[in-house]
Design goal:
single chain, two-stranded antiparallel sheet, 7 helices, mainly alpha, 2 strands, flat, about 180 residues
């Protein structure tokens, strides 16, 4: 009986500590963390957009991978069993993956359309969507040099302004992609 009472007390103390930690983080701090994650995730999406778009461009090629690579290492685990998935299940999983990827590309394209009319969209294009001939990402300094003096941009454009354009547009796009969690 004494052991049970000790266990109950330990559990009670642990629960109290968890609630204290949860309450020590303010609602505003939790909201800020979600907002930061939405911004970071939007940047990740933008960096991977071209690859993802290429990935879903050819549905037949996407689905043919399942037929080419019949691996014996693909297994499904369930309670007390290890099963090799049949071809129908693999194909079904691959189709579901393709549909998710295609849906993601469509959402990204809609968000890009919404922000493309805003000043500074060229920064997004050069930073995330275009690549140098060696497939590297353009630096902010390079983007500044490219855009300085172009239509709509001052001859004295500086790197800080370019970064501000990028941040503002990524925040806008995050709202289109993640809704109120990004605000």
């Amino acid at each position: 009986m004494a052991v049970t009472k000790e266990i109950k007390e330990t559990i009670s103390v642990t629960i109290d500590e968890v609630f204290k930690k949860m309450n020590s983080i303010s609602w505003l701090d939790r909201q800020k963390a979600m907002k930061d994650e939405a911004f970071k995730n939007t940047e990740k999406i933008l960096y991977c957009y071209n690859i993802l778009r290429e990935h879903v461009a050819d549905e037949k090629e996407y689905l043919s991978v399942i037929r080419k690579a019949k691996s014996c290492s693909v297994v499904r685990y369930s309670k007390n069993k290890v099963e090799k998935p049949d071809e129908d299940q693999l194909l079904s999983d691959r189709i579901a993956s393709y549909n998710r990827s295609k849906s993601d590309v469509e959402r990204i394209e809609k968000a890009l359309k919404k922000i493309q009319v805003k000043k500074g969209f060229e920064v997004i294009e050069y930073r995330y969507l275009k690549r140098k001939p060696n497939d590297d990402v353009y630096t902010f300094e390079e983007i500044t040099d490219i855009l300085a003096g172009q239509q709509g941009y001052n001859e004295n454009l500086n790197e800080k302004t370019v970064r501000n354009y990028k941040n503002a547009l990524v925040r806008d796009m995050a709202v289109f992609l993640f809704g109120s969690d990004a605000i």
